[in-house]
């Protein structure tokens, strides 16, 4: 089983298992350092996670101690909604680069295909969903093709090796293919047995665009955020997943991650526990049999947990 996915255009090898920084505590420098020490080479961050300074500190410590060289790491960040305007993409990226203390980013994503009215970083950083003054989400006339052109300029400047997008669909990608100079290298979306998105995964991969799954454990990350996360049966304690895990003498988390990896889909789990960090990397010397894949697939229920409507935002983004 391959441990990396080769990206279009650059041929860069993106680790198929990375460490996700969403909902990792802000004071997370030690966590990131421990993740790298445990063997993670992809660190998936974003300005909106409000911890890029500390993520950079963890990376710097690992490099200073000789655990890795910068070129051994694959660092990901994301452009937030309030910075889609062509005049704000580069300043937003420069802030990320400065906060993380890096010279370049391996993969920079458009976090959501939602252009929101710009907020001065001096007023609020990172910007939120709602304007801090009006307390409403205000859209901005910033077409994605202009935003993407600025993303491509970051590549031209040698500041970003690969660019991609997140939280979008086939129609948006099809439109991007009609104007982009650099095709998106990756699409990052919510994927787990409750939301398998098989047609999306199949088509996007057929277009030589890699898929990264977030929220591989389903509702686990959303219990404190919305009603859907509270009411859905946790996948980590679901009897079906537990039975499969027992068969292979693995944890439910390992089974859920392996299920995605066998689809050639990258995963970005997080854990603050070093033993679980290591376990989540232990996915490559065993394989789920077809009958167990079918059993897990039977859990499909179209349950999306990272949904703007669930957050009280009147935007049916995924409809």
Automatic annotation (TrEMBL):
tRNA-binding recorded as keyword: no
Entry annotation: catalytic residues: 49 (proton donor)
Site positions for Lowers pKa of active site Tyr: 78
Gene3D superfamilies for this protein: NADP-dependent oxidoreductase domain
GO BP, one annotated term: cellular response to oxidative stress
GO molecular function, one term: mRNA binding
Domain called NADP-dependent oxidoreductase: residue spans: 26-299
UniProt entry keywords in alphabetical sequence: Oxidoreductase
Family under the similarity heading: Belongs to the aldo/keto reductase family.
Protein name: 4-dihydromethyltrisporate dehydrogenase
């Amino acid at each position: 089983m391959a441990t990396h996915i080769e990206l279009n255009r650059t041929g860069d090898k993106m680790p198929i298992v990375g460490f996700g920084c969403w909902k990792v505590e802000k004071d997370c420098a030690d966590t990131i350092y421990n993740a790298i020490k445990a063997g993670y080479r992809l660190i998936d961050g974003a300005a909106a996670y409000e911890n890029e300074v500390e993520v950079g500190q963890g990376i710097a410590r690992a490099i200073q101690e000789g655990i890795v060289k910068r070129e051994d790491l694959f660092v990901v960040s994301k452009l937030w909604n309030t910075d889609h305007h062509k005049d704000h993409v580069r300043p937003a990226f420069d802030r990320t680069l400065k906060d993380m203390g890096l010279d370049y980013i391996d993969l920079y994503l458009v976090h959501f295909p939602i252009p929101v009215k710009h907020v001065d970083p001096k007023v609020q950083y990172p910007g939120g969903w709602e304007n801090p003054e009006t307390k409403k989400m205000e859209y901005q006339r910033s077409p994605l093709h202009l935003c993407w052109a600025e993303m491509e300029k970051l590549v031209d400047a040698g500041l970003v090796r690969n660019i991609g997008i997140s939280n979008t669909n086939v129609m948006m990608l099809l439109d991007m293919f009609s104007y982009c100079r650099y095709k998106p290298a990756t699409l990052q979306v919510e994927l787990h047995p409750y939301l398998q998105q098989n047609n999306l995964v199949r088509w996007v991969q057929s277009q030589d665009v890699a898929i990264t799954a977030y929220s591989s454990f389903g509702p686990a990350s959303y219990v404190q955020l919305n009603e859907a996360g509270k009411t859905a049966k946790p996948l980590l304690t679901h009897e079906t997943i537990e039975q499969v895990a027992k068969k292979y003498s693995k944890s439910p988390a390992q089974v859920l991650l392996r299920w995605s990896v066998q689809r050639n889909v990258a995963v970005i789990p997080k854990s603050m526990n070093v033993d679980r960090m290591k376990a989540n990397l232990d996915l490559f010397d065993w394989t789920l049999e077809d009958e167990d894949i079918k059993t897990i697939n039977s859990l499909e229920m179209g349950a999306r947990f990272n949904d703007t409507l669930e957050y009280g935002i009147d935007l049916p983004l995924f409809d």
